Amino acid sequence: MKKLLALLLALVMVFALAACGEPATEETTPAGEETTPAGEETTPAGETTGFIGISMPTQSLERWNRDGNFLKEQFEAAGYQAELVYSDNEVDQQVSDIQNLIAQGVDLLVISAIDGAALNTVMDEAAANDIEVIAYDRLIMNDNVNYYVSFDNYSVGTLQGEFLVEALDLENTTADDPKYIEFTAGDPADNNAPFFFNGAMDVLKPYLESGVLVCRSEQTEFDVVATEQWNTDTALDRAQNILASYYSGGERLDAWLCSNDSTALGVTQAVTSDYAGDNTVIITGQDGDVANLRNIVDGLQAMTVYKAVANEADATLDIAKAILAGEPVDQALIDAAGWDFEANLDTETYTTSDTGHAATSILLVPETVTPDNYEEVLVEPGYYTVDGDGYLVAVG
Ligand code: GAL
């Protein structure tokens, strides 16, 4: 019996020793794991933490799809967590989408507002949660918004106006043989829309006043020519009405100022199908939407103002990094950023209420695109490629 017990004890000890061997090998794993935290340290501080909420207006307009993708990609590539939401051009939807992002614990919000004046409550909620907001492309009218990244909106309009002065040869035109123009502007809820319109109008007004340029419909005020939600069909309907009311006899029409591409698309459709005259109507736009670039190649739209949204996203990322690191957003940041595009600091123009509080604004520089320069402005820098039919395809 003793022998049996001794044997059993010996067996137990053998098993126990064998079992002890396993933890010995396990010890190599924690040792191996130590390399992971060490590896993380090589990532610059501040880049591995941070949750960014990105709220875009709608997917129904081409540019916002590009903006959303670029922003999400840039933030994720820099090590942030990013959540991207679109709000279908519905203001209430955007408010609740932003509230959801706040509830999810975002550290920073990047918002392109559907209606810049309708986000007051939710901006107050963001501030109460110590969340800074970057107004992206469109300003938000609330004093809790301290940062704005956009293109120089007024100069978008200036470029359109200057293009028309040149294309219509207004300098050599006289009031006894004037040029004729109509106007279509953007969404009155979008803070950018009056900037675009005023930029163009400030260039064209002297010619309207001297009678060198004539608007037969006399619809030259922003409120009258605005297009809710930048909607293509709304722009189309209004253009058809104007053509039926003032040009049904084939009266001369030389140009149609459109503030952006989605409205230009509607106006081009109306002119193509309903204009009874034989003038080429020079139509302007903004954004470089693929459908409009197709019209530019086909000679149906004369120009667009291009805003490189990939660069806008780049600038937003660097500003977000500074904000999250508690560093100032100032000229030194721009100088040190090493961007391969031009951007200017403006601390005065974009006031968020009548208190005079102005968002610190980083404004990129837009460019005119025509049939003569799209290779150089869009294709060579890699924003677009040309397909087999000679049309432009957006990259990214
Ligand atoms: C503006 C934006 C333009 C244009 C328009 C329509 O706010 O700056 O680029 O896309 O909205 O969405």
Automatic annotation (TrEMBL):
Annotated region described as Disordered, given as residue ranges: 24-52
Q: Which Pfam families match?
A: Peripla_BP_4
- One of the record's GO cellular component terms: outer membrane-bounded periplasmic space
| UniProt keyword annotations, A-Z | Signal
Entry GO MF terms: carbohydrate binding
Primary localization: other
State the compartments where it is located. Answer: Cell envelope
Descriptive protein name: Sugar-binding protein
The protein's organism comes out as Candidatus Scatomorpha merdipullorum
Q: Lineage from the top down?
A: Bacteria, Bacillati, Bacillota, Clostridia, Eubacteriales
